[in-house]
Amino acid sequence: MMYMDLMNIVIGMLILIIGVMISLAFLTLLERKVLSYMQIRKGPNKLGFMGMLQPFSDGIKLFTKEMIYLNFSNYLFYYLSPIIGFILSLMVWMLIPYYFNMISFNLGILFFLSCISLGVYVLLIAGWSSNSNYSLLGGLRAVAQTISYEVSLALIMMSSLIMIMSFNLMKYNEYQLMIWFYFLMIPLSMCFLSSLMAETNRTPFDFAEGESELVSGFNIEYSSGGFALIFLGEYSMILFMSLMFILMFMGGYDLNLIFYLKLSFISYMFVWIRGTLPRYRYDKLMYLCWKSYLPISLNYLLLFIGLKVFLM
Q1: Coiled-coil region(s) at which residues (predicted)?
Q2: How far apart are CA 273 and CA 279, in angstroms?
């Protein structure tokens, strides 16, 4: 019986990973198409119907290119960091609350926070091991930004945790049947969404990859497979962060069409904001986190604790 359960979990995880990989491919295509139409041009439209095969072509091209060997790099860390980053971004997907004969995490939110915290090391090691000033600066900026926004992210999550009093993501479904948490805490949910953008290094918070200052940031020395793994990990986290926002603030996890429309819309918002807003200034990014988001999230947290104590 235990062997069958283990097999079910392994098969389920394989199906999940394949699904995530295909989703990533089409998310990159969506981004390129949306940005191209925002800039009044066509975008990829040659390979397959309306450019549908473009992501697969890009993947084959990147993974068949030669990997450059850097003479002065820290060889082992340089090659391992993109692989570890990609594995971490796929590990987070184990949190999806399964309804059918699968695992359910009772401490899922702690697992999520642990995984995104480990992602910081990947950025730092990738920047440091390349042995380039640009990549080191990009890695340091990415680490400072990610750690800062993880503080406010964790506090915002704690505010919603006090509402459900559980670390299990499936509990969000039960408490959002009548009204979404989004309507109960609109300022907090907007802070959460922009913190997710900072966490995934997306515009307007993409300072780890600031082309104008850092010539592409911490990943400058990576080409072919290493480059592809770094960006697959990044887009995997974008998709997962969109899922987390829906789970926590927009009605939870439900296997129906509306759930997938919500997920598509939040993922589209990441692209939409990239095409609309310019890059922020780095010091203003840090001020926004420590002087705005942190006080707001702390005040909300204290408010919800007070309400919980009063109602008990």
Answers
A1: none
A2: 10
Contact 220, 73 (CB under 8 A): no
Residue 96 near residue 246, CB atoms below 8 Å: no
pLDDT digits (tens, 9 = 90+) for 155-176: 888 888 888 888 888 888 888 8
Asked if 145 and 205 count as a contact pair (C-beta separation under 8 A), the reply is yes
Do residues 133 and 141 lie in contact, with contact meaning Cβ atoms separated by under 8 Å? no
Owner of token pair 């069409």: 257
Angle, CA of 113, 119 and 240, to the nearest 5°: 60
Phi, then psi, of 193 in degrees rounded to 5: -65, -45
Torsion of CA 217, 223, 226, 228, to 10 degrees: 90
One-letter identity of residue 144: A
Residue extents of the structural domains in the chain:
65-311
Q: 135 with 220: CB under 8 angstroms?
A: yes
Instruction: Read off the tokens for 237.
Output: 């986290």
Report pLDDT digits (tens) over 40-85.
888 888 887 888 888 888 888 888 888 877 777 788 888 888 888 8
